[in-house]
Predict the 3D structure of the following.
Amino acid sequence: MSSSIELINPKAESVRRAAALQVNTNGAMGLANVVKSNLGPRGTLKMLVDGAGQIKMTKDGKVLLSEMQIQNPTAAMIARTAVAQDDQVGDGTTSVVLLVGELLKQADRYISEGVHPTVIAEGFDVAKKEALAFLDTFKQPNKLDRATLINVAHTSLATKLNASLAKQLAADIVDAVSAIRPPPKSKDSSEWQNPIDLHMIEIMKMQHRTASETQLVRGLVLDHGARHPDMPKRLENAFILTLNVSLEYEKTQVNSSFFYSNAEQREKLVESERKFTDAKVRKIIELKNLVCDQAVDAKEKRKTFVVVNQKGIDPMSLDLFAKNGIFAVRRAKRRNMERLQLVCGGTAQNSVDDLTPSVLGWAGLVYEHTLGEEKFTFIEEVKEPKSVTLLIKGPNAHTIHQIQDALRDGLRAVKNAIEDEALVPGAGAFEVACSAHLSGPVKKSVKGRVKMGVQAFADALLIIPKTLAQNGGFDVQDVVVALQDEQAEGNTVGLDLQSGEPFDPTVEGIWDNYRVKRQMLHSW
């Protein structure tokens, strides 16, 4: 075989089948050993340093696998599978790498005893099919009230952040998803149910104070402030006008020239350009005067006016706004323009020709916060926000990145739970139960040597509770035996990482997402 390859390409390197298999298996097991210590709430942080000396601290498998430079082709393929898992369902990357690594390790045991790889692969296929069927019976339809969703978010966050911060942010995540969640359709209705759009939760970073001050803002935070020093810095009872209109002189789209023969003609040209822009600004000021008109001795709170524009506003226009007490923000992100309408109400306008009070939104409080050279605009105290902001605070960049990655996974976990309308008991409960199911009834029903592949799959699933025990500092064999004994009595049983004893995760509120487990089984 090797001589025939050398005939085709004299420089080709050929390796015997057993050696090639060993290289692939070692690559997978090596990658699994790298991420092994990340799993679970008692997992350790990894510090990554790039070529520029930037530090990243993470327990998130996806971040770790994305940043690592992996040479071994099998390990690289597993890493891509795990990253795809994160893209699809938002969690479970470390579990996928551990499962695939352990499957190859178990297969290697049987292959070294002379079993053909095809037989093992057939057993794996049977076991995977049965495991997916078992998962559908093991999942628990759940009343997804606020307390249950907080438990789901906390289970996800606790594996990536310290316990106190995870507890605090779990409630904020649930409140954020609940705010943007479309109203549920009635059971007998055939209407299309809109999906939950997590892009309507703005994640804003502010390098300031401590991580424990990360908070949910029921409104919008813009990462820039007013561009005129005389504009008011704090407004209450504010009308919000959302615009996509250029309030500055723009160059023409096509090449064009204007010729004038004397200075007067030039002055007229400049004046007409200015008039064109000033007319737009005056229409906005007229609308402001219309809606904010109050008697001098009026008892009600003073009305104010805010303009948020997606395009530019030139200094002359800003000056006019400032003189009329209008707070104006320019060059807002397109995404924020969508969010602003969901937060404050009102309708974004592409022209100032037909401005009426009905197009305006409203906010109870708009204020500017200055942090060093950066400015932030907070729009709060709105009536019924359909978009919110998670404001991440932290003393340094790597703390902020760590919280951002954890929030992203937590938001996906809550979204998955709501859309699945079912949960799977966590703390390794599914893996223990599925392993017992495969090595019991399923193995008995399978004929011939395929049983070995089924047994290998059943043994590989136990890597999850084994790793949880190892990271918690408990004896792995004792823990697995205790879990299997408890499960044999027909109980749903997971591993308590505080005591190392078997316990019922459903009582403690430790839940995994159904679709994460399903994708994990599909991934290998």
Summary: The first strand starts at residue 46 and ends at 49.
